[in-house]
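Proteins fold reproducibly. Next comes a concrete instance:

***
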Amino acid sequence: MTNPTHYRFSVQWSPRDEEYVGTVTEFPSLSWLDANESDAFAGIRQLTADVVVDMLAAGETPPQPLSDRDFSGKLLVRITPELHKKLATEAADSNVSLNRLISARLARSA
């Protein structure tokens, strides 16, 4: 069963709304506005819990929280042949595998 407290919650100030907005990554359409940061967090958590209960009652499957997912470490990325050649050449010049070169670059930018 999905645990609604495992979802990825975020609270940020919204200059446009002049309030804090709580969001949840796994439910991009949900948000909660409040003048108080803590209340925005509590609001989005409760809203998410309510939505999960409603989904289960309707026979729907809520999204699995990112924190509960298993990741294989495999990622297929399509790039242009020109970029592929450039990266492969750079990897060869550096005496590392293409995978290691790309992994290092991704790690630096994450």
